[in-house]
Amino acid sequence: MQNRMSKKLRMSQDAKDGWILLAPLLVLTIVFLLYPVVSNFYYSLTKWKGLGEPQFIGLENYVKMFGDDRFYSSLKNLFVLVLYIPLGVFVPLLIASVLRGGMKGWKIYRALLYLPNILGPVILGTIFAVMLSQVGPITELLTRLGFEHASRFYLLGKSTSAINTLSFLFVVWMRVGFGCIYFLAAMSTIDASLYDAAKIDGTNAWQDFIHITIPGIKFSIQFFTVLAFIEVFARMYGMIFTLTGGGPGYATYTLEFGVYMLSFSAYQKGYASAWAVILFFFCAIIALVQIRLIKKEELS
Amino acid sequence: MNKIRNTIGVLLLCLLIATSAGSLFAQGQSATKDEGPITLTVWNFKYAEEIAGKAFQEMDKLFMEQNPGIIIDHQAQPESNYYQLLLSAFSAESDLDVFLTHTDQRAWGIAESFHVFDDEISDVMGNYAESALKACSETNSADSDIKILPLTAQGLGIYYNKANLAKAGLDPEAVPSDWDDFLAACEALKQAGITPIMFGNQGSPFGIDFTYRVILGTLFSGDEIDGFADGTTKFTSDEFVQATGMIKELYDRGYVNVTNGSIPYFMDAINEFKNGNGGFFPGLTSDIAHWKDFGEALGYENIGYFPAPVADNAAYPENQVNQGAGIGFAVTEYSAHREAAVKYAKFMTSGEAGKIFMDATGAIVPNSTIEVDASNPMLSEVLAHMNGATVPDILNRVPGGMIQDFYNFMNLYFIADEISQDEYIKRVQNIYESNL
Question: Which of A8, A147, B175, B190 could make an S-S bridge to B306, C-beta 3.0–4.6 Å?
Fold first, then answer.
């Protein structure tokens, strides 16, 4: 009996090798992922500014958060941003579909479309803050064209236009380049004979797009959508900071931006951790959906 | 399989050796550091500025000449994220010895990591202005808990372009004595086709912010301003409501440049005023956007100054907002070279070094070892106000964490014009309470 047990417990050489190979990644994951996540949960129950000893205060931060205007404004703004995701998926999909047909000079268009991805959100935020300002080139052009009061038109100055401008720039415009390349790559896996057969049946380009292209790259579309959610929830800080600073008011505040502001500007790391816990749950849901999709694809 | 196992074993061994060697090398390096000249790491958010940066370089050179065993590694840091960077550096106890800092709540919020100078400056404490030492003390005391050594005496006020006032038919030597007078002057400027008030509010709305601070200085007593540090004085108070209404009136009457929401105060709005545009401009008394900046651009005889537009029924119409100290040098509590770091901070804020900074930038250095050239009438006028009836700056009292949100709501109310005054006041009070 004991012999059987020890045999069971004894690790095979293959398993040992596996653990050795896995060890560096495991250590990195524990140090840079698991530990921060777990400690964040702990800090969310403390009053701490990032210096000195944290003071345990139980659920006070959560109570404060659920009564905080900024929190609800952040959720509302995230909702607006999420509403732009379908457009952010559809536009690159459509462009990729057109490019796939072999448009003249498509390589140049592809390079131009991809440019925003190379520049990154901080640079783009700074550029657009200048471009859209009341003294920027667009206003100057409009003024020269005879629009006397062009300088009164300020997209980033009003709440509604600010969040919609931010949403369009980040969720739609900035992701077009990557989306096109991604969808073009996915479309190259569709069997060309399907289009030939459809042509014989007399379909037009739109019908090809709806009935062949979209079903053919369904998984890629789902995956790109999930990526868009991740970007909206956890990768917008750079653009918000440079474009609007979260304002006017809380018009462009998001959970992620709030975590930064509370943590580094207000020195409320404990409270910021409570916000980060909520953000963690949103991201966890997105990650679960992603895993599920991948598993489903593998099965199919 | 054995071959793979051996390869992995060798790789892990190499990694271990490399790590150990690295650690030993680092220890060796620090040992060498202890034996050789000391390198002080200094952070400075003004180091990248053309004039101030050159002055700091000259000051460093002088210090290193006088202290051959100390090397200064002066590093420019961005002002927009400066305190976030400092917090990170303090948390990690990174290699930082001395740093330039403001004397407001952004600094006091992380002051646990600031070294207390009390003992080291006992011999020279009398050289620093009392108001400056108070501003540099964590407990607002002139002789204890001094955590910053003051480099500038900072205040806020309104500068005006005398030529533009004359063009509008106004007497350039007569300062608007009350709110109606100020509005009348703005109207005359507007009618003459001159922008009455030049604001820069993009990013941080300093135009609105500075105007608020000077107006509130005439409405609140020093104690009431101090009350903003602990919640005793509220943003729902009549005085704050009145100041809000005054600034809103300037917007409603079209006295503020239309593009104020799109041009940053630093440096676009300042340059606009220096280029001769605008009648009035909310500026500073030291560093930049001050008497020297405008005097050199427009001619000293062409620049006027007064501490604030005086509110109706203002309790303190003569008050000049005086922060005591605007910026200064501090030393990290954990600095490995504390003695040298303190020596450097003392050097930079007094004597020859302070004089270099003052001459280059026009800053008023609050140290009696530095002679102020009062022959300039513009400087004399500013100094007369700074040494007269003064009141603390509200921004030095309110919690640092509320500032960004406060600014965002200034944008929403004054520039976007999307919420009512009542809603604005309520929201600002909420922001304040959640940061106390």
Answer: B175
pLDDT (0 to 100) of residue A237 = 92
- What is the residue-wise DSSP string for A248-291? STTTT--HHHHHHIIIIIS--HHHHHHHHHHHHHHHHHHHHHHH
Residues of B in contact with A248 (CB under 8 A): 408-409, 411-412, 415-416, 418
pTM: 0.82
A131, A134, A243: best to mutate for the B interface, most B CBs within 10 A: A134
Distance of CA B292 to the CA centre of its chain: 17
The count of residues in chain A is 300
Give B25's pLDDT tier (boundaries 50, 70, 90): very low
Q: Which of B403, B405, B415 sits opposite A157 (nearest CB)?
A: B415
Same-domain status, A26 and A70? no
Interface residue of B199, B262, B272, B425 to substitute, partner A, most A CBs within 10 Å: B262
Evaluate whether residue A55 is within a structural domain: no
Element (H, E) at B313: none
In this complex, how many residue pairs, one in chain A and one in chain B, have their CB atoms less than 8 Å apart?
Answer: 112
**CA B349 – CA B126 distance, rounded (Å):** 13
Residues 6+ apart with CB under 8 A from A116: A124, A173, A174, A176, A177
| CATH classification at residue A81 | 1.10.3720.10
Cite the beta strand spans of B243-360 per DSSP E: 280-284, 303-306, 320-322, 327-331
For B169, which DSSP code? T
The enclosing H or E element of B191 equals helix B179-191
Quick check: helix, strand or coil at residue B305? strand
CA B341-B345-B347 angle, to 5 degrees, is 115
CB contact under 8 A, A135 and B263: yes
Which domain covers residue A269, as residue numbers?
A: 61-299
**Is the same domain home to A128 and A267?**
yes
User: Token pair for residue B340?
Assistant: 């040298």
Contact check, Cβ <8 Å, B430/A248: no
Dist. CA B29–CA B22, nearest whole Å: 10
Number of structural domains, chain A? 2
Encode pLDDT of B39-87 as tens digits: 999 999 999 988 899 999 999 999 999 999 999 999 999 988 899 999 9
CB contact under 8 Å between A267 and B110, yes or no, is yes
Contacts of residue B263, defined as CB under 8 A and 6 or more positions apart, other chains included, come to A133, A134, A135, B200, B201, B202, B257, B269, B272
Q: Is B277 on the interface with A (CB under 8 A)?
A: no
| B8–chain A Cβ distance below 8 A for any pair | yes
Q: Which residue of A has its CA nearest to B432?
A: A266
Give the number of other CB atoms < 10 A from CB of residue A146: 7
pLDDT at B15: 58
Residue A105 counted as domain residue: yes
pLDDT in tens, chain A (300 residues): 556 666 666 778 888 888 889 999 999 999 999 999 999 999 999 999 888 889 999 999 999 999 998 999 999 999 999 999 999 999 999 988 888 777 777 778 777 888 888 888 899 999 999 888 887 888 888 888 888 777 777 888 889 999 999 999 999 999 998 999 899 889 988 988 998 999 898 888 889 889 999 999 988 998 899 899 999 999 999 999 999 989 899 999 999 999 999 998 888 999 999 999 999 999 999 889 888 888 887 777
Q: Which amino acid is at A242?
A: T
Sorted by sequence, the CB contacts under 8 Å of residue A117 that are 6+ apart come out as A174, A175, A177, A178
